[in-house]
Amino acid sequence: MVVSTFSLLLNGERAVVVLFVGCVLFSLPLSLLLPGLALSLLALFSLYTEITAENSISLAQFKTRPGASSGILLAAVTLPTLVLAKLIQLSRALALHEFEHEGFDYLTMQYWAASASSFFVLLYLRIVMWCSPDNAFSHPCSPWGMKVGSICTVLCVALFFTPCTRMQTMLNAVWVLLHGLAAVKLWHHLLHTFPSCASIGEALLVTDGLVLYFGDMLACTITKASAFLHKIVYFFFLD
């Protein structure tokens, strides 16, 4: 009975994802222990969300592709796992002084941004299910569901930590949270603009990539604009 239940929960797709994530986590150095813990929690949360989504009628409001599996676990961990694998590779180069620390820190920010994008969409899905009339533990939009959602959000922010100044940490946290909020908005927009064209997971995977790409482009634009303004101020007022 236990074996049959386990086989139903861990199908072929989930087994491959678990194996992929497990291989990356097994290769983690101690310096990346916190991102590895975050990825483990993200994988567990996405697996739980995918399993509960299969039996929830509240997600029928999202017009997904008929007959397609949700693919939530696969979509939620793909980009963060790839970025973490790159961080593992760069950490070895960093130990041999073959890579600059600034590039490593920037890629770490990319990892947290990708994780936040997946996490916030998962959190949104959980809130939709918590607020559903078919939820046996809460009535629509119950305070209990919102409290649990708030706790998950606080835990996500608490996991984000980098060894830098307090102001820089706060700015980084805000930047990561903005990625998460933008991901929820874009994911919702994709499913409603292109009905019956993608599953929940496919839309999430596209959303993660787009949010990370445009966030990176915006960060580069802001950096170049700030440097340009600094040169102008220095030339006219400080020279």
Automatic annotation (TrEMBL):
GO biological-process terms attached to the record: dolichyl monophosphate biosynthetic process
Membrane-spanning ranges: 15-48, 68-88, 109-129, 144-161
UniProt topology in membrane: Multi-pass membrane protein
Enzyme's top EC category: transferase
Protein origin, superkingdom: Eukaryota
Example of a GO cellular component annotation carried by this entry: endoplasmic reticulum membrane
UniProt-recorded name of the protein: dolichol kinase
Source species taxonomy: Eukaryota, Viridiplantae, Streptophyta, Embryophyta, Tracheophyta
